[in-house]
Design brief:
- By secondary structure, this protein is of the alpha/beta class.
- It has a single domain, classed as TIM Barrel (Alpha-Beta Barrel), CATH 3.20.20.
- It contains eight helices and nine strands.
- It has a nine-stranded mixed sheet with strand order 3-1-2-4-5-6-7-8-9.
- The longest helix is centred in the C-terminal third of the chain and has 18 residues.
- About 40% of the residues are buried.
């Protein structure tokens, strides 16, 4: 597997916020979000090839039961299912952070952290050319999201840049056929600095209060900034 980084930190987002976890960040992604905060693992993947055995050895160096498979997009990584199965055999709690464009196909997973991309993620066609069109076609796959939701414990996270994004979120939820309780929908402020996040917080909190969604802080930005290995 081509791995960008493996590090021990605390989960900064979602239902397990604050939980000590080992993060295995796979390099490579099938989308091109214009606000991507890990371009080194997505747009221009950096890292090195590691075997499943090597990854497991690094994970076992840390005293954490929770392991987060992230990216980029971890579901495009070679041997991701083999790695997840091996982690399950070792009694690890597995969170998979995915944009939910690829079906799970039975992968071992204890928490599917699904982050479908909104229109605000689509990159400028002048800069990305055909990749922008490909991103727009691929970013929302309702059949795939349904498969994850029906088979795993899940949380549904959306990156919100403006208040109008909530209308799109509600439309996508309706496409899923009313399967998603509002408290399983987490809204995160777009931004890679604490200042940018705080500027969006008041409006986002009000949207959560109005619609019953959950506000999702990005604790890693608060504690460490937008830095690798955190």
């Amino acid at each position: 597997m081509f791995i960008s980084e493996i590090f021990y930190s605390i989960q900064g987002e979602g239902e397990l916020t604050g939980t000590p976890s080992v993060f295995v960040r796979a390099a490579g992604c099938n989308l091109r979000c214009n606000w991507c905060d890990t371009p080194y693992a997505s747009w221009r993947p950096e890292g090195m090839e590691k075997s499943v055995a090597e990854i497991l050895a690094e994970v076992e160096q840390h005293p954490a039961r929770h392991v987060v498979l992230t990216g980029g997009e971890p579901m495009v990584a070679k041997d991701i299912r083999e790695l997840a199965a091996a982690l399950r055999e070792r009694g690890k709690h597995i969170t998979i952070e995915t944009a939910a464009t690829i079906a799970p196909d039975g992968i071992a997973c204890d928490l599917a952290s699904l982050s479908p991309k909104l229109k605000n993620s689509t990159p400028d066609a002048k800069l990305f050319g055909a990749l922008a069109g490909r991103h727009e076609k691929l970013r929302w796959q309702p059949e795939v999201v349904r498969e994850w939701v029906e088979r795993y414990p899940f949380q549904l996270k959306f990156v919100v840049a403006k208040a109008g994004d909530v209308e799109e979120i509600q439309l996508l939820l309706r496409e899923l056929g009313g399967r998603i309780p509002p408290d399983k929908v987490l809204l995160m402020p777009e931004g890679v600095t604490i200042e940018a996040m705080r500027a969006r917080e008041p409006a986002l909190v009000e949207l959560c209060r109005r619609h019953g969604f959950r506000y999702c802080h990005r604790l890693q930005i608060e504690l460490f900034g937008n830095t690798r290995g955190t």
